[in-house]
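Recall that a protein's primary structure is simply its ordered list of amino acids. Everything else, from secondary elements to tertiary packing, is in principle encoded there. The following example makes that idea concrete.
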Amino acid sequence: MTGPEAEARATAGGRLLTFAAWSVLVLGLWLWGKEITGVPPGAPAGQAGTPVGAGLPAARAPLSAAMPARLDVPSIGVQAPVIARGLDTEGAIDPPPYELPGTVGWWGAGAAPGAAGTALMVGHVDTKSKPAVFFGLSSVQPGEKVRVARADGTVAEFTVEDVRVYERAGFDPHKAYGPRVPGRAELRLVTCGGSYDKAAKRYSANVVVSAYLTGVGTRPGTAA
């Protein structure tokens, strides 16, 4: 059953940020619909007791920066256009508009997917009447692939490292959005999770898929 998603204010994690930049990020996270999560380091969604990183492939060297054009998450049937989002007047990252429930937002001031650092993409879990682009995000499993088609003709392939649900209490953006391994190209996919509070008009938690770059290809019809 789906409920209306909280009033949107998205946020993002980016490159190896300075403390001041992280402070701005913290503000943005709390302003994303007043719903972005708390973090006692969250339990993996559907993966309780599963060792993180077990049997996963080695990371690939980061790519040069290029804007993302499309996000593919084959395991949940997502093929979505990506749009860059900026800060709103309150200092938060705007998510995609509600009239574009099938679109993913990327924090354009942060790391580009495939480049060194942590790129953040956000999407709605539902609308007032139907599921949205990241409705199935919590069912993604470690080891599955996420692909980002980029404006330079390359396709950055990421391997999912873990999927976690972060509650609001004790939120720590460094643990949720900071780089896991310095110098690695990483990706976070973020949407709402937990239970929906009709009175507060927000969800109790967020689902965060963490992935890292393991391969690169070319988009059909483009030169290598």
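The longest strand covers residues 202-218. Residues 19-31 form the longest helix (13 residues).
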